Amino acid sequence: MLTINAIDHIVFNVRDVETSARWYEAVLGMNRTDVRSDRGEPRTSMTFGQNKINLRPIDASQERWFTGRAPSAGGQDLCFLTSLSPDAVAAHFRNCDVDIEAGPVTKKGARGPICSVYVRDPDGNLIEVSSYT
């Protein structure tokens, strides 16, 4: 029987790779990696911990970038974990001039109660940054 035990990477469809990469670097402290695909196409990834987000330009064709049937920007809703306190997360977002959509607020995470702060990235994806309480 197949059992899934982790996520290796996810792909965000984005309007502008450069804008998104800068935001994830500056606001969430992720590391940018630029490589070429087997076909020579540029690829930009954001890494953090043992995880990776590939930034796929929304205008890329299926031939250039194999992806879902209806790629669109701004449809993701993700929760990232941090060791910072929720108040420190909110202060960081304010210092980065990022509007806080909600929080800090207590929610239910995969391992129990988490305290979350919600913002949106440049494409409108809902980004939740949480810490376990």
Which helices and strands appear, and what pairs or packs with what?
Blueprint: E1 9-14, H1 17-28, E2 31-36, E3 42-48, E4 51-57, E5 77-81, H2 86-95, E6 100-109, E7 112-120, E8 126-132
Parallel strand pairs: 1-4, 5-8
Antiparallel strand pairs: 2-3, 3-4, 6-7, 7-8
Short account of what is shown:
The chain is of the alpha/beta class and 133 residues long. Helices cover 17% and strands 43% of the residues. The strands form 2 sheets. A 4-stranded mixed sheet has the order 1-4-3-2, with helices on one face.
Distance between the termini: 34 Å
Sheet with the most strands, sense and barrel status: 4 strands, mixed
Adjacency order of strands in the biggest sheet: 1-4-3-2
Helix content, binned percent = 10-25%
- Amount of beta strand: 35-45%
Secondary structure tally, helices:
2
Give the overall shape: globular
Topology order in helix (H) and strand (E) letters: EHEEEEHEEE
Domain VOC: 6-132
Organism: Sphingomonas insulae
InterPro entries: Glyas_Bleomycin-R_OHBP_Dase, Glyas_Fos-R_dOase_dom, GlyoxalaseI/FosfomycinResist, VOC_core
Protein name: VOC family protein
Describe this structure in words.
It comes from Sphingomonas insulae. Residues 6-132 form the VOC domain. By secondary structure, this protein is an alpha/beta fold. The chain has helices at residues 17-28, 86-95, and strands at residues 9-14, 31-36, 42-48, 51-57, 77-81, 100-109, 112-120, 126-132. A hairpin with a 5-residue loop joins strand 7 and strand 8. The mean pLDDT is 89.
